[in-house]
Design goal:
Strand content: 5-15%
Strand order of the largest sheet: 14-20-19-18-17-15-16
Structural class: alpha+beta
Bound molecules: 4'-deoxy-4'-aminopyridoxal-5'-phosphate
């Protein structure tokens, strides 16, 4: 049973229809004002009817603005241009009797606030009465009318034209960007009067259902009803958690004046100002930009307008999720209010219906596409794709050369936080495996550093900017000072870092042989894959690479050097990952590694410490794993955890080595050390320090190792080893290790396998691991080993 608004909808009536969460609390000054007066009466009360010459006299008398008055056409008020004949004058507004002075003051204060905050925004400023006191009342003197006095306001005269569908892409983006600037300028503005309930405020859209009876065409009425249904079901419940503030409320092309370059030259009419979700306000503007556009261009234009807005106010995902429905709701309000008012004021039909055709056209287009699909076009989250379908697409698109998915039951993740990954079914998985998110997945210090820098500047190292040099200084300062590792080159991946290290070594030593551990991995490039026996195909041997066993280092290296010298390649470099991660996580004695460095130097080679996997505090002793062995590398390479997931890597060496290399070649990597990468890397170093993650790695790691040791009572566990939060649990055979890793995954805990035989469980969590996380790993492992 619908009651028409004309009959008067009282507060109770309305409150009943609005869910309690969004029912608007009335500020004290409004509480005793009848609802109809506040919302509907301005539309119902007879508009003022002053003649032009009377208005000119009023302008001159009250505001000292002389000129001829020309009506600008307005429905509920009277608006006149006062033209002084020389481009000056002003715009005078005589208000409807229903107008509330508190609302007029709200407009005045808001415009003055904007003008004070963003002085370049061309808002039409109000003008106080000539010689009046500088208070709110000075901006709204009254003139006597036939019934009661009317408030009168004078605004700055703005020049420009009104735009429409002629606006090109740049203009559209600019208008949307200006809208965002206006909202930014208003974000600190407050006035209790802005809490008013306004007919056009989208958050109250559901209350306008009674107006639908005025839409005579059944199909169209159902169309609008369907929009309001979605609004109530999907949008309204989300609005209370979205950013809200005082907004213009009607930032449409009708209220913007453009200059000859289609730049916004005037923002007028703050008459719909209210406190509402920011995205609802943007939707009002966006609807105006999209009305009248070709169907096949609407979504593209919507997206570039969103981009324009995002130049100053990036929309949150929750806002993008409701944007399209809010645009549709705005269109629904336009046609519903128009139908209702035409019934009442048929003589004004032309003015009232001026937006109708375009609005219906867009509503019908949206309906033909389907509201869900429209929402996605506007930026709403698309539904998740079922895991088997993703597996299939991966196989089809990414080819056979990419390594296989981990685990028998692939992990399909949608988000992550700290030590947790969340899968597509909402299940959380404890990440005890990934070293890249070293400070925890999606750490806000890193994500914000990346986002902020991305918004500010991203370029390359042929230009000057601070973050790169700040990072270079931080990295060199993090190296043991006696080593003279004072020069840094930033690149994008561990492989690239090792490739540069290899080039440094071959160029400066003039040799071409390498020594690596027997199951090492150093990267994917052509040269470095020859240093990565882990990935060698069966039967392959790189001609100039000698392999050494992590637990027989001194002996093996000595022989390796002999062989390299015999076959005339000589030793260019020894590459060692001091965590021996792919060699099954080994912890050889200090002497062995010390001897390797000495022998390498004696043979004229460089020692490269590959910290790509084990670095950034995992040892629990130092930031760099090599420091646990008190050795002196010539080159240190960093990568994976360096940006907590943002691609950034580094090669650190001595100036003399880089100088010598520069005699052979100059290198430049486009993305290497870009400002965003540098900010990410700096943020990671900051968090490691601030959260004392090296100490945490030591404490949690030793506790975890102790607890794992107890599992040695089980026959399958042969050894537990490692440093800090890099732990290997050697099992009797690879098949058991594989079974255990999969059982843990099914139990919600991610670990991996390593070692030549793949029989070592690899536990390598983010360094923000806590005791209870470690406990979960141990308990799950116990269950898996017991076959439960
Ligand atoms: N060195 C080591 C020790 C590594 O573990 C890796 C990657 N697993 C690399 C180098 C190569 O790094 P990226 O995959 O970033 O090229």
């Amino acid at each position: 049973m619908l009651r028409s608004v004309e009959e008067g909808v009282d507060v109770l009536d309305r409150r009943e229809r609005l869910p309690p969460k969004v029912s608007v609390r009335l500020s004290a000054q409004f509480r005793d004002v009848p609802y109809a007066w506040r919302t509907v009466n301005v539309l119902e009360a007879p508009p003022p009817r002053f003649a032009a010459d009377e208005v000119a006299t009023i302008a001159a008398r009250l505001f000292g603005v002389e000129g001829t008055a020309t009506s600008l056409g307005s429905e509920r008020d009277q608006t006149f241009l006062i033209d002084d004949g020389a481009g000056g004058g002003g715009v005078i507004k005589i208000s409807n009797l229903g107008e509330d002075p508190a609302v007029l003051d709200l407009e005045t204060e808001a415009v003055l606030h904007v003008a004070g905050v963003d002085t370049d925004l061309p808002v039409a400023r109000p003008r106080p009465v000539a010689g009046g006191a500088p208070d709110a009342a000075a901006y709204r003197p009254t003139v006597a009318g036939p019934d009661r006095p009317h408030f009168v306001r004078m605004f700055e005269r703005m020049h420009g034209r009104v735009g429409g569908t002629d606006l090109d892409d740049d203009a559209l983006v600019h208008v949307a960007a200006t809208h965002a600037r206006l909202n930014l300028a208003l974000r600190a503005f407050f006035s209790p009067a802005a809490g008013r309930e306004l007919l056009w405020d989208l958050k109250h859209a559901a209350a306008l259902r009674p107006l639908l009876t005025s839409i005579s065409d059944n199909r169209r009425r159902r169309l609008v009803a369907a929009v309001l249904d979605r609004f109530e079901r999907l949008v309204l419940p989300r609005l209370p958690s979205l950013r809200a503030q005082v907004v213009h409320g009607d930032f449409t092309l009708d209220n913007i004046l453009l200059d000859q370059h289609a730049r916004v030259a005037g923002i007028v009419d703050f008459g719909d100002i209210c406190h509402t979700p920011q995205v609802a306000d943007f939707a009002v503007g966006l609807a105006s930009l999209l009305r009248g556009r070709r169907r096949d261009d609407v979504f593209r234009l919507a997206r570039i307008a969103v981009d324009g807005y995002a130049r100053h106010v990036p929309l949150e995902q929750e806002e993008l999720d409701v944007l399209a429905d809010l645009v549709a709701t705005r269109l629904a309000l336009i046609v519903a209010i128009s139908a209702w008012r035409v019934e009442r004021y048929p003589e004004n039909a032309h003015y009232i219906q001026s937006w109708d055709a375009d609005s219906w056209e867009l509503l019908e287009f949206f309906a033909s596409v389907g509201a869900e699909a429209v929402a996605i076009e506007f930026g709403a989250k698309a539904p998740q794709i079922p895991t088997p379908e993703l597996v299939h697409r991966r196989q089809r698109l990414l080819g056979a050369a990419l390594t296989e998915l981990t685990y028998d039951h692939p992990v399909h993740v949608v988000r992550a936080e700290g030590v947790w990954l969340f899968d597509v079914n909402g299940r959380r998985l404890l990440d005890a495996y990934n070293n890249v998110p070293v400070v925890g997945h999606c750490h806000p210090r890193v994500t914000e550093a990346v986002a902020r820098q991305t918004r500010t500047l991203n370029t390359h190292a042929r230009y000057l900017y601070e973050p790169l040099l700040d990072l270079a200084e931080r990295l060199t300062a993090s190296m043991p000072p006696e080593l003279g590792l004072d020069t840094v080159m930033l690149v994008n991946s561990g492989s690239e870092a090792n490739e540069i290290a290899w080039r440094l070594a071959t160029a400066t030593t003039g040799k071409s042989g390498a020594i690596v551990t027997e199951h090492a991995y150093h990267g994917v490039t052509s040269a470095v894959s020859d240093l990565s026996p882990e990935e060698w195909p069966d039967g392959y041997r790189a001609a100039a690479t000698e392999l050494v066993a992590p637990l027989r280092l001194e002996e093996d290296v000595a022989h390796a050097i002999e062989r390299l010298e015999e076959n005339d390649t000589g030793l260019a470099a020894t590459f060692i990952d001091c965590g021996f991660t792919s060699d099954g996580i080994q912890t050889p004695g200090h002497d062995g590694l010390g001897a390797v460095v000495e022998l390498t130097h004696a043979a004229g080679g460089l020692f490269v410490a590959d910290e790509v996997q084990a670095g950034h505090g995992r040892s629990g002793e130092h930031l760099w794993m090599f420091a646990s062995y008190s050795i002196a590398p010539d080159v240190v390479t960093l990568g994976k955890p360096m940006g907590n997931g943002y691609p950034v890597a580094a090669v650190i060496s001595r100036k003399d080595i880089f100088d010598q290399f520069a005699g052979h070649a100059r290198v430049f990597s486009t993305f290497g050390g870009n400002p965003v990468a540098a900010r990410a890397a700096l943020a990671v170093l900051d968090v490691i320090e601030d959260e004392r993650l090296v100490e945490n790695a030591a404490r949690i790691g030793s506790g975890l190792r102790r607890a794992l040791e107890k599992l040695r009572a089980r026959s399958a566990v042969t050894e537990v080893r490692g440093r800090g939060l890099l732990i290997g649990v050697e099992l009797s055979d690879p098949a058991t290790a594989e079974r255990v890793v999969n059982a843990l995954r099914d139990d919600g805990i991610l670990i991996g396998r390593t070692g030549r035989d793949g029989n070592v469980l690899k536990i390598r969590p983010p360094l923000v691991f806590r005791d209870h996380h470690a406990r979960m790993v141990v308990d799950a492992l116990e269950r898996a080993l017991d076959g439960n």
